[in-house]
Design brief:
Layout lengths: L19 H4 L1 H17 L15
């Protein structure tokens, strides 16, 4: 992933297998919340607006 992405992080969640989101819901939520927090905290006025399609 580091070859194609700028902000790559990894987490190790002991005691989980292939279904980490099912086996460790709270840990996954905490990791995602921490990772996404800077985007939530940015000034909303500086974010590009999503493209809209007329009539939709």
């Amino acid at each position: 992933m580091r070859l194609v992405a700028r902000d790559v992080r990894s987490e190790v969640t002991p005691g989980t297998g292939h279904w980490v989101a099912e086996e460790a819901r709270q840990e996954v939520l905490a990791a995602l919340t921490t990772f996404l927090a800077p985007y939530r905290d940015q000034d909303r006025a500086t974010r590009p607006r999503a493209a809209t399609t007329p009539g939709k």
